[in-house]
Each structure stands twice: as structure tokens, then as C-alpha cells.
Amino acid sequence: MLSYIKKNNNILLLAFGICFSCFTNAQAPALPNHDIVVFDLDEQKGRLTIANPQLIAASPGYDNQPQFSQDGSKIYFTRVEGSNADIWQWSFNTSKVNKVTKTQESEYSAKPIPFQNGSISVVRVEKDGKQRLWEFSDTSSQELSSNAPKLMFDSIEPVGYYVWLGKNIAMFELGNPHQLVVSQFPYKSHKVIDKNIGRCLQTVPGQKRISYTVELNSRHQLRTSDFYSTRAFGFLPANAQDYVWLDSKRVISSNSEQLKVSQPGANEWKTIENLSSFKLNQISRLAISADRKKIAVVFIKS
């Protein structure tokens, strides 16, 4: 329980214009042709390998922000068509993709809500330009446009990215600088934990901590927080800001062309060797299944 949150009601939020790489609108330039591929992830005698690629999202435009469902049977992702973004999902059971939201607004960054079975949270770009966190319920239905979404945090915006830790939540609040804001559902109060943060927010396996990065001298330093205290570790590979936790002691990131694995703070990144045979370009966001047996990789088609 974040007891301090209830007491802290004096944090002022500044609303900044929507000009951020993860979002688009009618005036925004065309986004790169991102695609999503999923690999089986295996480790034998300390050697980490990937195999069995499945190209799950390869539309002519932007397919990005993958997130596994809690049971690992689906992957949610954002697809932009024209000037509108919706949430789609890939099913491993059917090998098919279908649209989850179909609204006049744009939805991004879908994640299962840990305490709301069958529901997802999304960052919604509302008609007036606000970016706030919303809930869509009953994702078992083919399309959620008829299911009225619910606003989850009305006073925290503009939200870019976020991560759940039970009912606790950490949010990337767009600004100058960007801030890490923490709260607890359904409370409205919140607290700023850190500033100048990167876009990648994750949970640390087996720990009641979230992780994020802070940009220092053009490198992203990995940090973790239990919403009370913060620990700083080493840096991600040069030019990287995305990562996932392989386990409680190792992180997978990328140098754009290859996947790398390291212990936080070791500053020695080992290459996952057999990725090079798949010839992926400009690797960015990553997602990993709860059982750590599958990894989703976003790349740009050459």
C-alpha cells in the first residue's frame, strides 16, 4: 500500500503539447514501417538462443508496442491506420490477428490490468488532445468499441507509457523533462519519483519493484524503484532505451541490430548469437512472456 500517496495532494502537473514519437495525429508525419516478430527463447548450459520466428504484425505501416497477455496466449499491440491508432491482438492458439478497439480516439500501449481479470488499460489520445489512462473490459469479445471504456486516472496527464505492479502504477508523464509519476488505483493523488526518464518501464521478476531508465550523457542508465527508494545500475547498450528482464538478475536489450544480455551493473553485454541470421533492422521495443519462453521484437522492415 502506498500510504504516502494519500497524503501528497500538492503536486502540480503541466500539460504539454502532444509531440512524442509513440503517438500520431492527423498532422503528424508518417511513422516508420515497424513490424513485430516473436521468437522462442531457450537457454542451455548458459547459452541463450532464439528460434522459430513468427511474424505476427506486418501491416504496411506502424505495428508497435507489443505486450503479452497474462497467460501468454495473446500479444496486444498498437496498429496505426491513417491517422488513427487502435489496439489489436495476435492469438497463438489461432495464429490470427484481430482488432480489439475501434474508436474515433486513438489507443496505445495496451497492458493487462493485474487486478481486473480480462481487462486491459490503454493510453488514449482523447478528442481534445489529452493523453490519459483508460480501461477496456472483457477483452474476450472480438471488438471492444461497444464496451464503454472507463477513465482510470483523470488528473494525471499527458501519459506516454506506464507499468502496473499490482494496484500500484508508474507512469511516464510527458514534459520537459519527462517525469516518473507513481500512484495507486483508484486514488487520485500521486508522487514524482524521478525525472528525465526513458520510455521503457518494466516490472522486475520476483521483486516488488519496477524499473526504468534515466538519460545521462546520451546513455540510458537502468534504475529500479519500490515506489519509496531507488537503486541505480549500469547503462544499456549505446543508443538503446528499450529492454526486458530475462529473470531477476539479467536484462535483454539491443544495439539496434542484435539482442544483448547482461546483468544490471555489469556493463558487459553478450550477444545472442543466432539472431544475426534473421537480419532484423533497427530493433527497438521488446516484450517477454511471463514464463520467459517467448520474446517479441519490434524492428523496421528494410
Classified in CATH, the superfamily is TolB, C-terminal domain
Count the DSSP helices.
1
Average residue-wise pLDDT? 87
CATH architecture: 6 Propeller
Widest β-sheet, arrangement of strands: 2-1-24-23
CATH level-1 class:
Mainly Beta
Structural class: mainly beta
What general form does the structure show? globular
CATH topology: Neuraminidase
Question: Share of helix among residues?
Answer: under 10%
Uncertain parts = 1-27
Major sheet attributes? 4 strands, antiparallel
Distance between the termini: 47 Å
What does this structure look like?
Helix content is 2%, strand content 47%. The chain is mostly beta strands and 302 residues long. It has one domain: Neuraminidase. It has a 4-stranded antiparallel sheet with strand order 2-1-24-23, with no helix packed on it. The radius of gyration is 18 Å and the shape is globular. The model is unreliable at 1-27 (pLDDT under 50).
Which terms would index this structure?
four-stranded antiparallel sheet; 302 residues; single chain; globular; Neuraminidase; mainly beta; 47% strand
